[in-house]
Amino acid sequence: MAKNSTEGISKEEVALYDRQIRLWGVEAQTRLRKASICIIGVNTATLELSKNLVLSGLGHIGLCDPRAIDATDLETHYYFGADDVGKPKDAVLAERVALLNPLVNIEATSVGEPQWADKYDLVVAVGNVEGLPGMHQVNAMCRDAGKPFVGAGAFGLFGYIFADCLDAHEYVEEEVKDAGETHRHIRCAAYKRLDQSCSAALNITNLKRALRKYPPLVFICQALTSRIDKHGDVLSATELDAIVKRSLEGRGIPDGMVDEALIG
Questions:
Q1: What contacts 24+ positions apart, CB below 8 Å, involve 221-227?
Q2: Do 102 and 13 form a contact (C-beta atoms < 8 A)?
Q3: What is the rounded distance in angstroms from the CA atom of residue 63 to the CA atom of residue 123?
Q4: In 3D, which of 204, 199, 35, 206 has the Cα closest to residue 124?
Q5: What confidence category does residue 233 fall into, taking pLDDT thresholds of 50, 70 and 90?
Q6: End-to-end CA distance of the chain
Q7: What angle is formed at CA 235 by the lines to CA 226 and CA 88, rounded to 5 degrees?
Q8: 135-145 vs 216-231: helix axis angle to the nearest 10?
Q9: With 90 as the cut, is the pLDDT of residue 149 above it?
Q10: Could you please report the per-residue DSSP string of 152-189?
Q11: Which pTM value belongs to this model?
């Protein structure tokens, strides 16, 4: 149960985070304040992610995307202005989002050097950034450092999110008994790396049952994520069709799992 004591939280924080403290308690808010997250890649999803994390009171956020802002970014990146063209995306976004909550430390950072992931509790990769390690590689680096990893991306009208919470992720499962009593059980789950998830063979014997369990878009996102991680994100419709079909065939997934209309 969340503690009601405000020990460790300043009066300023209690006033600022009053609503969310009422929701999840001071203990959870204190953990948020001590947490540190690295976000790799600045795109429209990153804007919302960084904004919400800053408003929630997260302790430290590192943004990494040194690409220069261009005129096309102004159409969708609402924190960028015309005067920002040519400046690095991560530095500009960090400066603008920091204005939302001065109690949060948010800054531009770099990734890839030895032990870079050690200072973070979680690493989030939003799409792939040219010149930086790809999503599969970032996941592998996080594994080596013993840090959980979240990957996310969007392809037109659909997208995905992937979580790797390592080999022994503990969580609490609540069970409500007939008498109304709530019992909490500590469970442990083992997660797979992104490359394992994207290439795992599935033993599908019943197509209808499999379609209820696996949304077809999952397989498309997995195929695209693996391809883009190695070769970039410029694809024709013909290339997309070939990549998805080759991925499905290599994993032993029947053609009927993915409708042609979704690929085309």
A1: 221/153, 221/155, 221/158, 221/159, 221/160, 222/197, 222/198, 222/247, 223/198, 223/247, 223/248, 224/155, 225/135, 225/151, 225/153, 225/160, 225/162, 225/194, 225/198, 226/136, 226/195, 226/198, 226/199
A2: no
A3: 10
A4: 35
A5: low
A6: 50
A7: 80
A8: 90
A9: yes
A10: EEEETTEEEEEEE--S-EEEEEEEE-TTS-EEEEEEEE
A11: 0.85
Q: Which pair of structure tokens corresponds to residue 56?
A: 């929630």
Lowest mean pLDDT among 135-139, 165-169, 189-193, 231-235: 231-235
Q: Is the pLDDT of residue 144 over 50?
A: yes
39 φ, ψ (degrees, to nearest 5): -115, 120
**Would you call 112 helix, strand, or coil by DSSP?**
coil
Q: How many CB atoms lie within 10 A of CB 176?
A: 9
User: Tokens 């500009």 — which residue?
Assistant: 92
Model confidence at 154, pLDDT cuts 50, 70, 90, reads: confident
Instruction: Flag the least confident range among 52-66, 128-142, 178-192, 213-227.
Output: 213-227
Residue 154 to residue 240: CA distance in whole angstroms: 15
Angstrom distance (rounded) from CA 146 to CA 115:
11
Strand, helix or coil for residue 255: helix
pLDDT computed for residue 90 by the predictor: 96
Tokens 């069709």 — which residue?
241
Return the SS3 of 196.
helix
CA angle 246, 125, 218 (to 5 degrees): 35
Amino acid in the structure at residue 40: I
